[in-house]
Amino acid sequence: MSSNEYRTERDPLGKVKIPKRAYYGSQTQRAIENFQISNKHLPRSFIKAQGIIKVAAAKVNIDLGMLTKNLGEAIITASEEVINGEWDDQFVVDVYQAGAGTSQNMNANEVIANRANEILNKGTHAERIHPNDHVNMSQSTNDTFPTALNIAALEGIHESLIPAIDQLQQALNRKSEELMSVLKSGRTHLHDAVPMKLGQEFAGYAETIRSLYEEIKQNSEELYEIGLGGNAIGTKVNLHESYAKKVIAEVSKRTNYPFREPTNIFSFMQNRNAPLRVMGSLKELSVHLIKITSDLRLLSSGPRTGLAEITLPSVQPGSTIMPGKVNPAILEMTHMVCCQVIGYESTLSTAVMSGQLEINVMMPIIAYTLLESIHILANAITSLVEKCITGIKANEATCRKWMEESLSLVTGLSPSMGYDLASEIGQQAEEENKTIKQILIDKGLNTKENISAIDPSNFI
């Protein structure tokens, strides 16, 4: 840019050149210059939450006589534009930034202040809105940043993730019912085990997801505690005595979530307990999704050289060199997403334990990892349901073949023959590559009772 495309602002550290078209100011510009790290930014949901907080603070400050109506209403209008996404391109601070999220908070304060001043200039007002004195009135980064995270996380959980998990559970339940008539060989240690129903396998998956659904819902309730009004360290310095209760009520009104004051404001300022517990649940969900998707990959392996007990929907070609090959792409994608979330959980846990004394300065990375985990899990689970689970089909002939050839059918003979003799029959069947039934015939032990004992339907 040429020099005439910049404006110059002054802050406590001196003069700063800023693009003329930018709504942000000197502190944001310094952050841009200082933190050219990843080109990743906090998501739209977080920016929206910042806007909600600024609207609520301005309204309460007007009501309490702390902020003049004309300035406050301009701040509210500008903040509502931020909520609606009109200025997302002005939120430019890297995720890896100054501790606690001061740069992110000032990014919001400066954008809203400059836009509010633009609104005021359209009228006849001579007063000028200051990003700290007016937009940030009664606030600190230390109480607003964790609150914005809680608001954004709840939005992602309740509007995207919880519906996706519920959709997955229902899809697995329907698939369980659909496949309950299909008999197959169970497997333990990846070796033959006693027969079971394919639907029972899917019923296990469905119940696992149901329990995780309940756990995530329960842990997310801790996000309803927000520390607005705690200010810098929880002492509520420079605040009107009614501000905290009123601003939390205003945020609740604007989000339709039952936010409440923390049981202990100092604990809220010091710790990120709620994000830690929610992230732990997301890790657990990821661990189980990896298990389920790995199972489905095994069950669908082949189609000629693997288990091939189920068929997955074909979504795209699987090889650039092997014509006609189709891979379990959706399952692999889900597995990768879960690996990322497990890594994010480690990052978040390390960041949470890095809090010292009155605040945790690792808030930006805590916010990014939690919100990104919610986002990618919700999207992955939705794709998993729509492009994989609902289209799974059973290969009944293959299931029957493996089941009838399973050496574990000999288990049915143990009560009458004893463990040792049944083991000999199983070992002979393996050595001679015969079925258990064939060995019974060879040994003249094919009585009605013994044949019934190895009938797969009698195991279930």
Automatic annotation (TrEMBL):
<dbReference type="InterPro" id="IPR000362">
    <property type="entry name" value="Fumarate_lyase_fam"/>
</dbReference>
<dbReference type="InterPro" id="IPR022761">
    <property type="entry name" value="Fumarate_lyase_N"/>
</dbReference>
<dbReference type="Pfam" id="PF00206">
    <property type="entry name" value="Lyase_1"/>
</dbReference>
<dbReference type="InterPro" id="IPR051546">
    <property type="entry name" value="Aspartate_Ammonia-Lyase"/>
</dbReference>
<protein>
    <submittedName>
        <fullName>Fumarate lyase</fullName>
    </submittedName>
</protein>
<feature type="domain" description="Fumarase C C-terminal">
    <location>
        <begin position="409"/>
        <end position="454"/>
    </location>
</feature>
<feature type="domain" description="Fumarate lyase N-terminal">
    <location>
        <begin position="14"/>
        <end position="343"/>
    </location>
</feature>
<dbReference type="GO" id="GO:0005829">
    <property type="term" value="C:cytosol"/>
</dbReference>
<keyword id="KW-0456">Lyase</keyword>
<dbReference type="InterPro" id="IPR018951">
    <property type="entry name" value="Fumarase_C_C"/>
</dbReference>
<dbReference type="InterPro" id="IPR020557">
    <property type="entry name" value="Fumarate_lyase_CS"/>
</dbReference>
<dbReference type="GO" id="GO:0006531">
    <property type="term" value="P:aspartate metabolic process"/>
</dbReference>
<dbReference type="Pfam" id="PF10415">
    <property type="entry name" value="FumaraseC_C"/>
</dbReference>
<dbReference type="GO" id="GO:0006099">
    <property type="term" value="P:tricarboxylic acid cycle"/>
</dbReference>
<dbReference type="InterPro" id="IPR024083">
    <property type="entry name" value="Fumarase/histidase_N"/>
</dbReference>
<dbReference type="GO" id="GO:0008797">
    <property type="term" value="F:aspartate ammonia-lyase activity"/>
</dbReference>
<dbReference type="InterPro" id="IPR008948">
    <property type="entry name" value="L-Aspartase-like"/>
</dbReference>
